[in-house]
């Protein structure tokens, strides 16, 4: 057996491997088939062929942050901004519930309009109306007390990608006011409060090196999150990174598989970004070890406006269409779409 194959088998046996071995695996495509088939096997051992559906509600595209890569950054003055009212958010949940979703993911920019009081009100209302559903928030960096208040109001999960675990790389992707330390503090606060926590990073973001990716994997080992979301970086014409290359499908898939081997229990989505860079991106993500998809429940009228990057998928479809399209894709890849809450199995 070649040394790289031996290293992949070491990962498969859930043993840690040195950075140098991870680097070799990350930098060659020769063993992708082996990697994907082992990842698929590990996923099946933990979750069978179940793929969990989460209903995604993108409720505001206002953001006070200015991340260099993101289409809804504050300084993008070409973007028409929108916010959903509490009634609109609730009606998305109602439609989602009717379609069988038992997890709602409320995602948005960091929008000061949604004070803690407003967020708690929305969460409490959803909790009361849909007691059997999981409520996931993804609204960025907040003080610990705010996270606690949302949790007490009924939120159970929180998604906050660390974006990159290297301080130097973080500073190349974000303005000075933002720091990796703050982001990490948020993630550890969320865990301490009792949320199921999701983190992750973009693959192929500008200036990213293989060493950065290895730091990302090591940071995730330290955090031990329940969910891990990764997707390729995709450029947006109205950001400072408009001329940077997109991340690659192949490297993203390889990382999905590595994550599955390193974190067998994790909930790993086949992300919209993966589907946006390749027509079969999400199916291929599932086959490389992903076990979650997030159909869009946002009203069709605002979909186009939550444009983090170019050519974002599913901007024109009704919720029901989006759900059935994804279910077909799941079935065609050989898996089963499941609408239960889909909590992590540790
Ligand atoms: N504001 C919240 C936060 O910061 O976590 C949630 C919204 S934020 C837009 C969601 C994620 O979109 C980010 O964590 C980032 O990884 C991803 N994203 C932003 N711009 C992107 C791009 N150009 N390509 C791919 N992913 C991008």
Blueprint (SSEs and pairs):
Elements: H1 3-12, H2 19-26, H3 32-47, E1 50-53, E2 55-60, H4 86-98, E3 103-108, H5 116-129, E4 134-138, H6 144-153, E5 157-159, H7 167-173, H8 180-193, E6 196-203, H9 210-223, E7 227-232, H10 249-262, H11 272-277, H12 281-287, E8 292-293, H13 300-303, H14 319-332, E9 336-338
Parallel strand pairs: 1-8, 1-9, 2-3, 3-4, 4-5, 5-6, 6-7
S-adenosylmethionine (SAM) binds at residues 69-70, 72, 107, 109-110, 138-140, 160-161, 163, 202, 231, 233-234, 236, 273, 308-309.
Q: Can you walk through the features of this model?
A:
The protein is an alpha/beta fold and 346 residues long. It contains 14 helices and nine strands. The strands form two sheets. A six-stranded parallel sheet has the order 2-3-4-5-6-7. Helix 4 (86-98) links the parallel strand 2 (55-60) and strand 3. The chain is globular, with a radius of gyration of 19 Å. The mean pLDDT is 96. Bound molecules: S-adenosylmethionine. The site of S-adenosylmethionine has 20 residues, from loops. S-adenosylmethionine is lined by residues 69-70, 72, 107, 109-110, 138-140, 160-161, 163, 202, 231, 233-234, 236, 273, 308-309.
Give the key terms:
346 residues; TIM Barrel; 14 helices; 9 strands; globular; binds S-adenosylmethionine
What is CATH's topology name? TIM Barrel
Alpha-beta content class: alpha/beta
Q: Would you tell me the overall average pLDDT? A: 96
Amount of beta strand: 5-15%
Helical content (DSSP H or I, runs of 4+):
40-55%
Amino- and carboxy-terminal Cα gap? 32 Å
Count of all domains: 1
Unreliably modeled segments: none
* Biggest sheet overview: 6 strands, parallel
Gross morphology = globular
- Reading side by side through the largest sheet, how are the strands ordered? 2-3-4-5-6-7
- The CATH class assignment is Alpha Beta
Number of strands: 9
Order of helices and strands: HHHEEHEHEHEHHEHEHHHEHHE
Tell me what the CATH architecture is.
Answer: Alpha-Beta Barrel
The CATH superfamily is known as: Aldolase class I
Radius of gyration: 19 Å
Bound molecule types: S-adenosylmethionine
